[in-house]
Design brief:
Layout: E1 2-10, H1 13-32, E2 35-40, H2 45-51, H3 57-65, E3 68-73, H4 77-80, H5 89-99, E4 104-110, H6 123-126, E5 130-136, E6 146-149, E7 154-157, H7 163-178, E8 183-188, H8 194-207, E9 214-219, H9 220-229, E10 236-239, H10 241-251, E11 262-266, E12 271-275, H11 292-304, H12 309-324, H13 345-355
Parallel strand pairs: 1-2, 1-3, 3-12, 5-10, 8-9, 8-10
Antiparallel strand pairs: 4-5, 4-11, 6-7, 11-12
Bound molecules: nicotinamide-adenine-dinucleotide.
């Protein structure tokens, strides 16, 4: 198979982890006889520094022209501490999602057995947890009208959803549930929000088309509690942009660390694959970043955008083997981990390549 992959490292540890993800894609190409070609493009703070624009037109064009994008992260402390900055790295991310029509963000949350002790949740509660989140990505309060009034003393962000937007992500979630345990949990705040009432109405109507899928409706506050209390009760979860953003970070603790979680953003065109973590400037340049989320993002890319399931499974299996062999990055190590098994970013990448 011949495919063209765009690497978009972005900021901070995004640079370090995508370099490892790319090596894994390269190894898969060699091992399975594929030809992957690559290009690179700027986004976020590095793009602002180079061009003044967090998503330069050239980057967007390269994204549209590629078969898939392996993405790092965007963000810089300079902007986090300056709410008044008009041009910001995250604008690049949001514009990319909108322009590429990436309306569905898939986040598989599965604990590798070897990491049971790395989580702050009790192992007996966690064992067997396997959740697939569908977070809506191009609507909600993130994209609605926003502004200030009353001389800047009052601020507003408008949340908006159309029937069409809810239906298309809902359908993807129902289809995925069919291939898993046939359980779908739709999360909203329909007791308070009008957008949530529309959300629930649309999912209830869709449910009639999927009688084989058991549907549960939860309020987001209850989900936040149940994810920690009983994560194994969930199979597929579908929710709006803001709720999904928060719940999936919470659920990252089920997987032991932010550094373990991959995501796929898909929609009308090129798919974008990225770790759920940010640019982590506290550890940038120190070789401490866990590259496994980027490696697992590459696995999702192979499966979803290229339909290469065996290749994707080979990557996941190699990660599993590395963990079984006792290797850890610092974020997933515990008191029992011997010092010689704690690896830096590059060494962890090399370990995965060796098992591949
Ligand atoms: P973060 O995910 O960057 O970091 C949170 C914590 O987790 C930090 O302590 C960090 O060291 C740790 N961590 C994250 N990824 C890790 C990895 N791979 N290995 C080891 N440890 C890891 O979130 P934050 O600190 O809230 O935000 C930092 C910047 O990233 C901000 O500018 C924010 O806007 C941005 N951000 C970007 C994205 C994205 O690009 N999709 C997502 C979230 C945050």
């Amino acid at each position: 198979m011949n495919k063209h992959i765009l690497i978009v490292p972005g900021d901070g540890i995004g640079q370090e982890v995508t370099a490892v993800g790319k090596k894994v894609l390269d190894k898969i190409a060699t091992k399975f006889g594929h030809t992957f070609t690559y290009d690179e493009a700027l986004i976020g703070h590095v793009a602002i520094e180079a061009t003044g624009d967090p998503l330069p037109a050239e980057t967007l064009q390269k994204m549209r022209n590629s078969d898939a994008v392996l993405f790092g992260a965007v963000g810089h402390p300079k902007y986090d501490n300056d709410p008044s900055a008009k041009v910001r790295p995250e604008q690049g991310l949001l514009k990319m999602r909108k322009e590429l029509g990436l309306y569905a963000n898939l986040r598989p949350i599965k604990l590798f057995d070897e990491l049971l002790s790395a989580s702050s949740i009790k192992p007996e509660i966690l064992k067997g947890a396997d959740i697939l989140f569908f977070r809506e990505l191009t609507g909600d309060i993130y994209f609605g009208e926003k502004g200030r009034k009353n001389n800047g003393d009052t601020a507003f962000d408008v949340a908006e959803y159309s029937r069409y937007e809810v239906e298309r992500i809902g359908r993807k979630a129902f289809e995925a549930a069919r291939t898993r345990k046939k359980k779908l949990c739709s999360v909203d705040k329909a007791n308070v929000l009008e957008t949530s009432r529309l959300w629930r109405e649309v999912i209830q109507k869709l449910a009639l088309e999927y009688p084989d899928v058991e549907v549960e409706y939860q309020f987001v506050d209850a989900t936040a509690m149940l994810l920690i209390k009983d994560p194994c009760r969930f199979d597929v979860v579908v929710t709006a942009n803001l709720f999904g953003d928060i719940l999936t970070d919470e659920a990252s603790q089920i997987a032991g660390s932010m550094g373990m979680l991959a995501s796929a953003s898909i929609g009308d065109g090129t798919g974008v694959y990225e770790p759920i973590h940010g640019s982590a400037h506290d550890i940038t340049g120190k070789g401490l970043a866990n590259p496994l989320a980027s490696i697992l993002s590459a696995a999702l890319l192979l499966d979803i955008s290229f339909g290469l399931k065996a290749e994707s499974d080979a990557v996941i299996n190699a990660v599993d083997q590395v963990l079984k062999a006792g290797y850890r990055t610092r974020d997933i190590a515990d008191k029992q981990t011997p010092a010689d098994k704690i690896l830096g970013t590059e060494a962890m990448g090399e370990a995965v390549l060796k098992f591949l």
